[in-house]
Amino acid sequence: MKLGVGQRALAIAAFGLYATASAAPAAADTASEIRELKARLMQLEAQVSKQRADVKHATNVANAAQAHVSKDGHGHPPPPPVFVSFKNGLFVETEDKAFSIYLGGRVNADGGWQSDPGNGDASGVVLRRARIDVAGKAFKYWYYRTQFEFGGSQGGGSTANVRDAWLGFNYPILAKLGLPYEKNIFIQLANQLRPLGLEALSTSNSGITFIERSMMSDSFNTPRRHLGASISTGDHNWGVKGGIYSGSPQDTAIRPFNNLLGQYWEVDGRAVYLPIRTEEDLIHFGATGRYYRNNGASGASNDELLVGRGVRNEANALNTRLLGTPDMSCNPGGPFNLFGSAWAAYPAFNGQVNQNNCLNGVAAFNAEFVAVHGPFSIQAEYARSYYSRDTYTSAGLLLTPNATAFPAAPALQAARLAAGQGLASSASFDGWYVQVQYFLTGETRITAYTDIEHNVNTPYTFSTQPKILNPVSKGGWGAWEVAARWSAINLDSGSQGYWSYFPAYGAIGLVPGTAIPAGFFPATLAANTVGTTGGRVDKITLGLNWYPEKGYRLLFNYGRVMDNRAPYNQPWLNSNNTSSFLTRAEVWW
Q: Angle at the Cα of 196 (from 190 to 200), degrees rounded to 5?
């Protein structure tokens, strides 16, 4: 039998090692010498493996060159060889790694049942997600991604729409300019996720532990793509990202109804630091800051101003809503264009009100923490948002100073109160969650954590499934994980009481124990004592997850609302402590 170059090298190395070992006295045959021999053998094997790879590379290049020359006869430089693989998705890449394309997708099918004393028991099944994903790289430095949702449902309706649609440039720009920083700078343009929180950015859904994200993330760090531009950089144990963003294809309307004031915009940033990151242990600290300028937007165009309205009790398949503020722009029915009207000319407004939009801006922050040790992990986040609103436009327009002078005002007042607007000039909301999880089969979440070198889109997150030690296809039982989460959110701000529930009673005169203040300034003063009532919820969730293979997962969640304070328009939901059971069949490729 004729031996190849690599086989002959191994045979010679093995014979040399054997001769060396045999010639040594028996007394020298110690454990340390054996370890040394094994190490030398591993080095030789690595060298032979490299030789084989070099031979294969040279053969591929030669074959490609021969094929190219024989095809056109002009002797042009041959195209690089192309390698095709299936890494939970079709992946094609050139040998020099300058070009690549990935075709993948995901499907989530959910079902469940809920005991709901306030709204009645519910059950349902939905196709939560059905997406196709195309991503890749061109000319070494240019990245791209397009993702579309094909009719995924979220409780009451379809959410079919474009998700990711962006172009990126990854290049050591500062080093090229002669500055002492050699890391790549990643510039990302068009429709992308904002850097708002760890759980919200873990977008693969395989990267989050429970079937749904926490109420906090869905209310304050909505995982919704926005049009904008961002810049990011980082290393193995730190990273930063910042960007400026505006409208989203997922907004309720393409542009605000009060378009004379323009579209909203925001500036967001995130920083992450990992003091410990090894194969067994990981400590992650992160912080996010956000400034939002509202301009002409309202809840009718940007439903994120209806804070908490989209939260379905961490059980989207059952479409139960226990939270939700009034429109924080003070424009629930809009547009109420008061320009040129008697209201706009009223001296107390000082000529400032012409579009009936009270929200100036939103300032928010978010803190992240993760600790992983082997199969055990703990994760927590806290978020708070501050809404700055103008006093006169939030209160003065709602209570009629003189019904005789402005006969149309009572109808406007009734409409505004029926819409449930909180009248205080500013508001502050917060929320948090803490979760723990443990792999019964020994896996670790560290294998699912990615930095900017491996994930330019959402770095420093758990963006994929953990590595499964014993998949079913290899005779094992897959990975089994248990988890528990406690989440809470508070969307009540300012004083609470009978005035908080105007909409539930239909009109101001029907609210028990209240009287209509006489005169404009007393009315304004009274109105500004009324807080925003979006509700409060505390909930625990227990989870069991099974990962039979890479790309497949079955999830089982039990949830229990421990405390519930009703929102402004549903006072009957006070102490409505629901229980739910949800399942999900998930596949991604």
A: 95
Residue 413 lies in a domain: no
**Is residue 39 located within the same domain as residue 108?**
no
DSSP 3-state of 157: strand
- pTM listed for this prediction: 0.78
Q: How far is CA 451 from the centre of its chain?
A: 16
pLDDT tens across 509-561, in order? 434 444 444 444 444 445 455 677 888 999 999 999 999 999 999 999 999 99
How many other CB atoms are there within 10 angstroms of residue 142's CB atom? 15
CA dihedral 517, 521, 524, 525 (to 10 degrees): -80
Distances (CA, A) of 153 to 125, 159, 367, 563: 10, 6, 30, 28
CA atoms within 13 A on the CB side of 384: 5
DSSP-derived letter for residue 79 is P
User: How many Å from the N-terminal Cα to the C-terminal Cα in the chain?
Assistant: 43
Q: Domain residues for 145?
A: 83-390+425-496+531-588
Does residue 17 lie within any of the structural domains? Answer: yes
Distance CA 367, CA 287 (A): 5
Q: Are 564 and 574 in contact (CB under 8 A)?
A: yes
46 and 154 belong to one structural domain: no
199 and 54 in a common domain? no
Q: Fill in the amino acid letter for 366.
A: N
Can you tell me which residue has the tokens 């993948």? 104
Q: Which amino acid is at 450?
A: T
Domain count, the chain: 2
- Is the backbone peptide bond immediately before 81 cis, with ω within 30 degrees of 0? no
